[in-house]
Q: What sequence folds into this?
């Protein structure tokens, strides 16, 4: 058994009771899972403050001084330990509400301690609640740059606050060897990209000696995580193209050609033609298309989506478009209706506000196949909506929909329908792959002739005066 597969209760300083809390609170069952409990920030413990310099707005402070007195105040649920801590400049109260008796025995008067924690103000008097307290001789042996870990109240009651987790991590690295961590990248790749080996990266992320160590460790770990996310997405993409059958749109029929030659409101841009070719190629393979089309507002994504729907109709299939709001669905419906006004293509709108009297014939037309295109909101995924031959699903602003909602819409087809996603958010291809799974991506980066450039303007008011902040060219308004 590999070392990091060892049950967590066998780690020094943990034991059965602490192990149970780690399992229930953080889901940590094995050595390897504790190793992946990364710190959420780091603190520089090289600097010390004087008591007269500290105030409650400071995030954390570190003091060096002595305990003047220790007193247990209150009884039962009001019981607390108050220790007066002083340096050459002044005094501050250290307060504990848990572990009162244990801390009272630990604190020794006239011993020099290093105290680290958050300062607060109680009735005009500064204090630090549950600070980290160590004897000076012990504290100076530690790295000045320390990791801080997330914890919970239950873990803290078991001594597994950030400091307790850090001690457990020390014991963990005493038991692990570099051989426990086989490399995932070749030496040449690591050198070219400035990556650490796995063991060093994990050790430095928990115990960096400098901020540069921490940054390099975090970079190396993040690279590995994103690298394997990308590999998984590429594998899913390849597997889908191999295994998931989709409708075959092999025919460019009269609906498409008549619209293109006689009803197209303007000449398609080169980018629109290129994306249409990509869509036609995908939809003619017999495998399900799963493609993201990205472009600025006004770049012509909607027209590309409409012409893809006409291809579906020419091949005997229905198409639908789902938008996140009724306003956007209505806008798409009005645009499509205007563009198709001189054609024989049937198109309807379905939203939550469509009355039952109008809804019934619409649903019947979708079910018997006489309806070619249905535009709507979340209403499209209702059980009452049934398609005879759904072949293409278009989703506008995918980030506004959940995975389950998209899946319910796709389940309305006998054969996995082609999926076309539209977004106006500029997304680099790598991030697009990460955010949208195994999608192929197309970009319409060219505006139709005569379109004004997109500008973003932010207006802010100050005392009733409106300031026009310079706009950013090429970015759509939110």
A:
């Amino acid at each position: 058994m590999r070392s990091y597969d060892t049950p967590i209760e066998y780690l020094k300083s943990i034991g059965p009771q602490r192990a149970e809390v780690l399992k229930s609170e953080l889901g940590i069952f094995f050595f390897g899972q504790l190793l992946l409990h990364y710190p959420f920030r780091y603190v520089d413990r090289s600097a010390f403050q004087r008591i007269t310099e500290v105030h409650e707005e400071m995030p954390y402070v570190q003091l060096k001084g002595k305990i003047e007195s220790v007193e247990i105040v209150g009884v039962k649920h009001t019981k607390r330990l108050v220790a007066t801590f002083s340096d050459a400049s002044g005094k501050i109260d250290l307060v504990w509400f848990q572990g009162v008796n244990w801390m009272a025995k630990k604190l020794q008067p006239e011993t020099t301690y290093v105290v680290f924690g958050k300062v607060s103000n109680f009735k005009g008097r500064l204090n630090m609640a549950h600070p980290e307290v160590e004897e000076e001789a012990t504290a100076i042996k530690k790295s000045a740059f320390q990791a801080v870990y997330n914890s919970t109240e239950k873990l803290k009651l078991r001594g597994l606050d950030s400091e307790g987790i850090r001690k457990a991590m020390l014991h963990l690295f005493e038991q692990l060897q570099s051989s426990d961590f086989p490399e995932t990248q070749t030496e040449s790749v690591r050198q070219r990209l400035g990556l650490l080996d796995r063991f060093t990266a994990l050790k430095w992320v928990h115990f960096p000696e400098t901020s540069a160590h921490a940054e390099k460790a975090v970079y190396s770990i993040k690279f590995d995580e994103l690298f394997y996310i990308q590999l998984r997405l590429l594998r899913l993409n390849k597997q889908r193209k191999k295994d998931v059958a989709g409708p075959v749109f092999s025919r460019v029929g009269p609906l498409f050609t008549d619209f293109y030659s006689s009803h197209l409101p303007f000449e398609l841009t080169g980018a629109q033609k290129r994306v249409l070719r990509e869509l036609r190629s995908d939809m003619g393979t017999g495998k399900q298309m799963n493609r993201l089309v990205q472009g600025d507002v006004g770049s012509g994504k909607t027209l590309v989506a409409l012409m893809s729907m006409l291809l579906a109709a020419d091949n005997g299939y229905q198409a639908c478009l789902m938008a996140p709001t009724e306003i956007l669905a209505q806008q798409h419906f009005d645009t499509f209706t205007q563009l198709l006004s001189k054609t024989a293509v049937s198109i309807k709108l379905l939203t939550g506000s469509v009355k039952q009297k109008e809804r019934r014939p619409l649903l019947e037309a979708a079910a018997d196949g006489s309806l070619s295109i249905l535009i709507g909101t979340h209403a499209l995924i209702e059980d009452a909506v049934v398609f005879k031959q759904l072949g293409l699903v278009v989703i506008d602003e995918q980030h506004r929909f959940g995975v389950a909602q998209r899946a319910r819409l796709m389940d309305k087809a006998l054969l996995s329908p082609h999926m076309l996603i539209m977004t106006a958010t500029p997304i680099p291809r790598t991030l697009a792959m990460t955010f949208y799974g195994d999608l192929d991506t197309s970009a319409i980066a060219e505006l139709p002739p005569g379109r004004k450039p997109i500008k973003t303007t932010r207006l802010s008011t100050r005392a009733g005066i409106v300031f026009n902040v310079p706009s950013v060219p090429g970015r759509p308004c939110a």
